[in-house]
Amino acid sequence: MSTKGVLEREPLSSRARGEARAWVAQRVSAAVLALCVLVHLVTMIVAVRNGLSADAILDRTRGNLAWAAFYSVFVLAVGVHAPLGLRVVAAEWLQWRGRSADIACVAIGLALIALGARAVAAVAL
Amino acid sequence: MRSGWANRGHPAFWAFVVHRISGVLLALFLPLHFLALSQAIAGAGALDAFLAWTRNPWVSASEVAVVFLLAAHFTGGLRLLAIEFIGWKVESQKALLALAGGGAVFFALLFALNLV
After folding, report:
1. pLDDT, tens only, A11-62
2. How close B102 gets to chain A, by Cα (Å)?
3. Which residue, among A102, A101, A29, has the nearest Cα to B23 in the 3D structure?
4. Closest CA–CA distance from residue B17 to any residue of chain A (Å)
5. In B, which residues are within 8 Å of A24 by CB distance?
6. Rounded to the nearest 5 degrees, what angle is found at the Cα of B103, between the Cα atoms of B56 and A46?
């Protein structure tokens, strides 16, 4: 551990800064998802009580801006959180690191956001 | 410092394994979940056709399992956020593990009991 004061330490390399940003993004998205998942769990438990049907789901979500906004935030947070988590698993268990892993991470995030946005549009619009 | 399988006697090691495996499985499940919901683009009838398939007992059991994975990843994640941002207190660790595990089972059971 460095004994230098904060003003004396050498600046972080861009790779170290990138890793630090990924760490922060993972925790921030986790905090957002903590709220989203709690709401989602409660919603699911209530929704299945009377049997799940398309009408029951769509009556709640169709044309409802609040649900559309909620699920949009949910999808964005998942699009950040899931790929970053998979990136750590890939690094630790598959020894897959570096540029190609980062590109795969971004691609997975974009794919999740695209699929998620389509799902939100399907139930909310 | 010991790492990996050498720590299997420690309860927090199993919390790590559950958190990691649940995360990976949820990441694999999510695209299927989004595709299923997107059935609604073709109208309520298309979504209903899919939902009819989910009433198969094996599918229902899998749904309970997925809800458990979500709840476990959620409660385990809250435990990690507490450790990282509130701090590591030796005396709190067993309680945090018990809360995380119990919370996950609570949500999964509540879902299962409302499903049947």
Report:
1. 788 889 999 999 999 999 999 999 999 999 999 999 988 778 888 888 888 8
2. 15
3. A29
4. 11
5. none
6. 50
